[in-house]
Structure formats: C-alpha cells, structure tokens
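G., before I forget:
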Amino acid sequence: MATSDTTRLEAFSDGVFAIAITLLILEVKVPDHAEIQALGGLWQALAHRWPSLLGYLISFATIGIMWANHHAIFIYVRRCDRPFLLANLLLLMTVAFLPFPTAVLAEHLPDPETRTAATMFYGGVLFLIAVAFNIVWWTGIRDRRLLGSNIAEAGVQTIRRYRMGPVGYAVATALALASVWLSLAIHAGLALLFARSETGAAATHKT
Amino acid sequence: MATSDTTRLEAFSDGVFAIAITLLILEVKVPDHAEIQALGGLWQALAHRWPSLLGYLISFATIGIMWANHHAIFIYVRRCDRPFLLANLLLLMTVAFLPFPTAVLAEHLPDPETRTAATMFYGGVLFLIAVAFNIVWWTGIRDRRLLGSNIAEAGVQTIRRYRMGPVGYAVATALALASVWLSLAIHAGLALLFARSETGAAATHKT
Amino acid sequence: MATSDTTRLEAFSDGVFAIAITLLILEVKVPDHAEIQALGGLWQALAHRWPSLLGYLISFATIGIMWANHHAIFIYVRRCDRPFLLANLLLLMTVAFLPFPTAVLAEHLPDPETRTAATMFYGGVLFLIAVAFNIVWWTGIRDRRLLGSNIAEAGVQTIRRYRMGPVGYAVATALALASVWLSLAIHAGLALLFARSETGAAATHKT
Amino acid sequence: MATSDTTRLEAFSDGVFAIAITLLILEVKVPDHAEIQALGGLWQALAHRWPSLLGYLISFATIGIMWANHHAIFIYVRRCDRPFLLANLLLLMTVAFLPFPTAVLAEHLPDPETRTAATMFYGGVLFLIAVAFNIVWWTGIRDRRLLGSNIAEAGVQTIRRYRMGPVGYAVATALALASVWLSLAIHAGLALLFARSETGAAATHKT
C-alpha cells in the first residue's frame, strides 16, 4: 500500500487538539445568584469553583503537552498510510473525549462519596490517551517505512520513553483508591515530566 | 469560468471537520447527583451514559473517516471553481449538522417508543452526508477540468466506489424499522469499510 | 507604515469562519420527552424544530458564502497593514456574533408577537456583516498599496458589486415589518446571489 | 538543547485564539418568553443583554488584538525550543480561560453588589494574559538564540513596549474598586492602544 505526506493530517490533528483544549472552559459554570447568596459573595463563589479550575489546569496542561509531543512524532514520521491515519484518529478520539471526564471530575471532586470514582474515570481516560499515543508511535515507526531519511536511531529511541506513559497513568489511576489528591498530583507530575525535551532531542536531527 | 487552487478550501474544510468532530463531546452530559442517587453510584450513572458513548463512537468514526476520504478527493482535484466550492459547502453543512442527530440518538436510544425514529433520523442524516460527498466528487471530476495532470484513470475509478455510500446508508436507515441495533451495526460497519485504502491507492500516483 | 503578507491573517479568519459556522448547530435543541408527548411523537417534535433548521440553513449559507468571498478578496489584496487587520477583525466580530441572532430567530419565529423583532434583529446583524465586509474591501484596495501586482482593474471592479450587499440586507430587514417570510426569502436569495462567480472572474488573473 | 521552526506552533496558537474568540458568543443567552413578558418586548429584552454585548465587544477586541501581537512576535522569533513552547502554552491557557470571566462579568455587571468583584476578576485574568504574553516575549528573545537573523535591534525594542501591559491591566483592575465603568473603559482603551502599529514597525525588516 502506498503512502502520502503528513501535512493535512497534522493540520487536522492541530485543529482537534486546539478545539478540545479550548472547549474545557465551557465546563466551568458561572456562579448564579443563589450560590453567591449561600456562600456569602462572588469571590467566595468563584473560589468554590476550585475543582473546575484544577480540572482545567491539569487537562489543559495534559492536552497541550500531548500536542507538543504529537508534533515531535512528525519529526520522524514523514509519510502517512491508512493504518497510521486510523491510529491517529483513535488518539484524537480519546483526546476529544477528555472534556467529559474533566467535567465529571470537577463536579464530583468536592463530594467524598463520588470523588474516588470520578478521579479513576478521569485517570482511566488519561491512560487510554497514553495507550493511543503509543499505538500512533508504534504504527509510525513500524518497519521504518514511514520514517524520513536521515533519522538517527538515537532520536527514535528517545521518544520510545513514552512507553512509560500508560504505566504512569495506570499507577496514578489505581492510587486514587488510596487518595484522589495523590492521584491528581501524579497526573500533574506526568504532564510536567512529558513536558521535557523530546522535541529538543528530536529537532537536533533537523537543524 | 476560471479556477483557483484548493489550498484554502481544504484548510476551511479541515476546520469544519475538526470542530464538528470535537463538538460531539459537548452532547455527553455529566450525571447529576439525583441521577447518581437513583442509579446507586457514579460508575452506574456513567455506564447509564452508554447511548451517548455509542453515539460519540459512531459519529466520531464516521466524521473522521469522511475527513480522510475528503482528503483523498484532493489528490485528484487540484483546482476549484464556484460549483465545486458550493458542493463542498453543502457537504460541510451536512457534516456540521451531525452533532444534532447524534444527540437525538443518544437521548432516545434507551426509549423503546422513540428509538426507531431517532435511529432513522440519524441514519437519514448520514445518508445525506454520503449523497453530498458524491456530489462533491462528481462536481470535482466532471469534464476532468479540475483534475490535476498525470491522474491515472484507475485511481479515479477507485474512488468511484463511494457511489455505494448512499445505498449503504439508505439500507441501514430502512433496517432500523426492523432493528435499531442492526441499523447501528451497519453504520459502524460502513465507517470501517470506508476506512480502507482509498488514499493508499490514490497516493500511488503521487509518490 | 509597513506591510506584511496575509498568510496568517487568512488562516486566523478561516478558523473563525469555520468555528462560527459549526457552532450554529449547538443552538438546535434536542426535543425532550415532555415535548414529544405533547406533539405526539419524535418525528413531530423534530418537524417542530423547523425554525431552528431554517435558521441553520440561512446562517450556514450566509457564513459559508461570506467565507468564499472573503477568500476572493485575498486574490487582490496580497499585503496587510494594521488598518486592514483591524477592519478584518471587525468583520470577524460580526460574523462570530451571528449564532446569537440565529438562535433568537429560531426561538421566536413561531411566535406572531415577537417574530418581527427577531427577524429584524437577525437582518440587522446581516446588514452589519455586509457593511464590515465592505470596510474590509475598501481598506484593502485604498491607494492600491496592499494590492498584488498584475491586478486587472476589471477584477477589482467586479468585486465592487458587494456595495449592493448592505443595501440588500437593509431592504430585507425593513421588509420584515411587512412580512418576516418575505424578509427571510430575500436573505436566502442574497446568499445565492453572492454565491455566484466572484472567484471565477477573479481567479482569471491568477491562472 | 536544540530548536525547531515555529510553523506548527503558530498554527496551533491561531486555532486556540480563533476558538476562544468565537466561543464568546455562546455566553450570550437568548431571552426567554418570561423575560420578554417582564420587560415588555423582545427589543427591550435584547437591550437588557447589554452587559453580555459589552463583555463580547471588549473580550473580542482584546483577544483579537492579542492575536495580532502574538503574530508580531514571530516576525522576530523564528525558532522554537521547549521553554518557549511551554511559555506559549501558558499564554494560551490564560487566553482560552477568558470566556469564563467574560461570562461572570456579563452576569454580574447589572448587580451593584457583585459588579466590583466581577470586574476585578475579569481584569485580573486580563492582567494574567498580559503577564503570560511578556513571558512568551522574554523567553523568545532571551540570548537571541531563537531570533531570526537580520533582526534590527530597534524592532525588538519596539515590541518591548508590551512591558506596560501588565501595569495597565493592574491599574485598571484596582480602579474597579472606585468605578467599574472607569475600569472597563481602561480595558477598552488598552485594547485600542495595543491595536497600534507593532506589525507595521516589525514588518519593515521583512519586506
């Protein structure tokens, strides 16, 4: 089967990432007058929105950094075939899904009875995103037929460190049974961890 | 009448496809506390969202694969005139409409009284999308004046297999009268069928 | 003051047009069970959504064709300065506003008491879009300093026919006092009128 | 650490800016029939939406002009590394957040008891956007290693005038304690001030 270049695939993916990340804010609801009365003021009602704000922060950072790393894949993968395109669509399906578990998390984080389930659901979707990202990566480098020429093996190895993503998210999800705060701290930490230097290492081969 | 190139038409279409596919998640509603109480927990309430999740899956796959095949058209069609632009706008109008029947389907799939109508409405819109896609394709290859040079007739023939799209969606829609599950299974099957190898065959002529 | 090229201006505008056109569907609400009960079935309740569907159709066609004609401007205007950029931002502000009057129209079209006001509000916004479009056009061709070289005067004259846009929309808006249906028919007619051949004529100079 | 070019970073940022600016309209709610009854007509109910319209205007202008100035940065910054990418992500996080404080402002501006807090919250977010913009700019020009060649020092100095942004927004926010109207007037004034000539001066070096 033949291949084509990745320009429009990247543009479409950029669009989905950009929209998913921007839709997150729609889940933060404006405090109404009853809520303000009950809590004693608008500032208090806004502070009461902290679960939404926390969800916005973690999900925005996760999608944003996922986008940056998605970008890094295309430093190596320069051609596109149907299996790669479908793997990429699977990844986008999980990324575009994230506003929903983020809203579930924001709604239920203050409630001791449902917060564990909400955090595990949220972590489970992050786990699926990480799995899908690895499928995209493996589909892209399989047989090296979609790779550009002049790709250093060391660079391809570097990005392989994403294999740890699903493990990290699975651990964070399971730990929600012990403490949702620990679980969310690991999610934030994983975002920061993956924020580091992939494109840096990768782009060396380009400049 | 004269023609222009297709770059900005493709960019605009990519935008509409990317937004329509990402808006689908806004129709999945967060379970509220009354619902969780009634169903016995957050996990149960999330599981109760299966019609929304099923709708999300089928519509996401359908739009995503439609995008990939829309992309494939422009391997052949390299120029753009007003009739082609308007045909493309008609296609985008049907694609951007899909979040609405998806939400109707998700809302009514659990209800035995309304699920047949909801599934037929959903299938009817998929049928219109397939018809619009064929109009775009035929407008694009008519007289061969918008085609790029060096286009193999075999490639143009390959993509003609989309003629079967409207028939498939019409059959799936009609079968909802017998069983909505069979109808939805055919929709999912058609998405997988059209996920296969068009660009592969097409891109041969490009590389 | 110096100028720069229009690539990113076009990309940003494409984004706003694509999002505004796709958000229109969010204003079409899923019929709930009470409504279905009252109207005697889901099909009846969907048919009862005709004002929303009509609004979707007219607004989608208007924004889509406005996008195509916006595209046509950049066949002539090849450079960008701050006044042009701000004029373009003004146009985007009116285009991005359209989902609101569309929703107002859809909500109030069935109500004899409020439908005239709703139609005039909708028409008034279309009038503002047409005015803003003309401001963009005049800012772009003023002094001919932003125009590309080799621009035929005839082409520039052709696109000037947009001057009739504000007049047409003003007439349609005023006629809503006599009949909202006549007013909406003129809006649809204007969309079709502007759908004709600008880029065709324009692109002649490019090929 | 190595660098890569900024094309996809700009495209992703354009997407987020375009979506955030277009989502603003979703916060303007259609007047319902009770509201129209109470206020004596649809026109009166639409006029009653002035706080939403004012919020739409100021936020649209602010994001739009921020986009134009973001664009201006990339006339100088021609390469991208991880710190710059993360600084840019921080800016997008604040920009994508703006629809929320805009909605809070629109909801509470008519209420004398909560309007001061709402205006300060809104101004506070504009302050954060301005701070993030400066972080992007400083990360971009630090050590001059991401700058293009042939960049005139005068141009780099010009854009430095954004340092005044955070100060202006902080003053406007604090003045809300005295008068929310004065505060909003300053926000509008700052948008107009920053609407002036950066790209003009900048692009000189390009043409």
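The longest helix of chain D spans residues 50-76. The first strand of chain D starts at residue 4 and ends at 5.

More on Monday.
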